[in-house]
Amino acid sequence: MTRRVAVTGWGCVSGLGQGASESWRRISAGDGAIRSFALPRDDAASVRAQGPAAAIDSLDTGQIEARFGTRAVGKLDPMVTYAIVAATEAVEQAGLLGHPVLDDRTAILLGCGSGGNATFETGYRRLFERGLDKTHPQTIPNGMISAAASQVAMVLGVHGPAMVLASACASSAHAIGEALHMIRAGRVDVSIAGGSEACLTLGSWVAWNSLGAMASDTCRPFSVDRQGLVLGEGAAVLILEAWDHAVARGVAILGEVVGYGASSDAAHITAPDRGGIERAIHSAHADAGLSPETPVLISSHGTGTRLNDATEAAALHAVYGNALSGDTVIATKSAHGHLIGASGALEFLIGLMALREGLAPPVLNHLGTDPACDLPLALSQQRIDLAHVVSNSFAFGGLNAVLIGRRA
Questions:
Q1: Does the structure show a pLDDT above 90 at 74?
Q2: Burial of 353 (0-12, 13-18, 19+ CB in 10 A)
Q3: How confident is the model at residue 41 (pLDDT cuts 50, 70, 90)?
Q4: Which of 81, 123, 170, 210 has the most CB atoms around it within 10 Å of its CB?
Q5: Which CATH architecture does the domain made up of 258-407 adopt?
Q6: Among 86, 145, 79, residue whose Cα is nearest residue 349
Q7: Where are the domains of the chain?
Q8: Catalytic: which of 301, 336, 366, 388?
Q9: Which residues contact residue 136 at a Cβ distance below 8 angstroms, ignoring those fewer than 6 apart?
Q10: In the beta sheet, which residues pair with residue 360?
Q11: How far apart are CA 37 and CA 388, in angstroms?
Q12: What is the pLDDT of residues 245-281, one digit of tens each?
């Protein structure tokens, strides 16, 4: 059994703001969220997180609390709260709040790379700094990587399959891809799919910085003199729905998910492998029945690191060949930072919005062409008339996921 899969709702929160409309307004105008960020440690000023980041300034949960009660988002890890905010927006836009399909024929598939960083760091500080022999009783329930799926299910009343997929920076792209196959196979009619991450904490920051992958200035995908990635935080959720189910409800269809490819490099824990990337892209095109010669919008992984960008660019040239000159490449991490496990979902959402609006958001902070990354980048706001978006997500451990969406 194979069914077409529509997108009938979406929601997000990131440094760009809360809500899909606000996020699109800013990113399409070239208004990025990366700025100076500092997170001092209370008792040791010499240990601190300081540098560029795309942090969430504020979060309005008033409508959620009014509808579901204050406990819906009370005292949860930020990673979980972000997921609830994005999922509620998406479900509401799709007209599914309180719908009977949530009770039985809906799945939740969310991606997360690292779980509740803030919750566990608070617990560790109680143990190792304050010398206490206990952590808060909710440390495990709030911090476990599956907490977002559980809490979203409880808030929205979803009784179908609910789970979190963890594949580092490809987590939410894998979640959307697997949700696509669940609907195609007839296991469910609706899936709440996406991802959430909240890694702007001291321990996470220091760990990423120790890896040597973070930029000291800003995120400059595919640019000469790029230094590395910039961390962001937030969540993005899409409502995937069987096409016939959506049509029967009379709901507006925002886009369609038509292809998904995944691969494992099986090569190196941090360095990307061009062959693995090419396999995932080819697999997605085959799944979508879309020729690589068809002009597309490419939402690149585009982290701004020297090795990742060059390897992705080489893979794009290998897959698309001369046809690449007819494509348009965007790199939205230059605006919202790297949301780790939530990046794929946010980038796919922005890509679908770009198709609907006929507008490619600009790649920011570009200083000039690196010969190793010579791509048809949208370096300014660019009008497009394209039917498909190819959204790339490539993770540490060589875990790759590529999604293809089509304009409604």
A1: no
A2: buried
A3: low
A4: 170
A5: 3-Layer(aba) Sandwich (3.40)
A6: 86
A7: 5-255, 258-407
A8: 301
A9: 122, 123, 126
A10: 382
A11: 36
A12: 999 999 999 999 999 999 999 999 999 999 999 999 9
Position 39 confidence tier, pLDDT thresholds 50, 70, 90: confident
301 classed as catalytic: yes
Secondary structure (3-state) at 286 = helix
Active site residue 181: no
Q: With CA atoms as reference, report the closest residue to 150 among 79, 97, 204.
A: 79
Question: Helix, strand or coil for residue 283?
Answer: helix
By three-state DSSP, how is residue 264 classified?
strand
| Residue 169 among the catalytic residues | yes
pLDDT tens digits, residue range 144-159? 999 999 999 999 999 9
Task: Give the predicted TM-score (pTM) of the model.
Answer: 0.97
- Model pLDDT for residues 151-193, shown as the tens digit of each residue: 999 999 999 999 999 999 999 999 999 999 999 999 999 999 9
* Structure-block tokens of residue 321: 């060949």
- CB of 227 within 8 A of CB of 215? yes
Q: How far apart are CA 6 and CA 89, in angstroms?
A: 17
Paired strand residues for 407: 255
Say which residues have a Cβ less than 8 Å from residue 391's Cβ, sequence separation at least 6.
Answer: 173, 299, 344, 347, 348, 351, 402, 403, 404, 405
The reply to whether 5-255 and 258-407 are identical in fold is: yes
**Is residue 368's pLDDT more than 60?**
yes
Q: What are the counts of helices (DSSP H) followed by strands (DSSP E) for the chain?
A: 14, 15
Q: Which of 338, 366, 373, 388 is catalytic?
A: 338
**Alpha-helical regions (H) of 137-273:** 139-143, 147-156, 171-184, 202-211, 243-249
3-state DSSP percent of the chain in helix, strand and coil, to 5:
40, 25, 35
Q: Do residues 239 and 96 make contact, with C-beta atoms less than 8 angstroms apart?
A: yes
What three-state secondary structure class fits 61?
A: coil
Residue 365: pLDDT over 80: yes
Q: Which DSSP string corresponds to 333-384?
A: HHHH-B-GGGHHHHHHHHHHHHHHHTEEPPPPS--SB-GGG---B--S-EE-
Rounded to whole angstroms, the maximal C-alpha distance in the chain is 63
The whole-number pLDDT of residue 47 equals 65
Among 169, 199, 219, 373, which one carries the catalytic annotation? 169
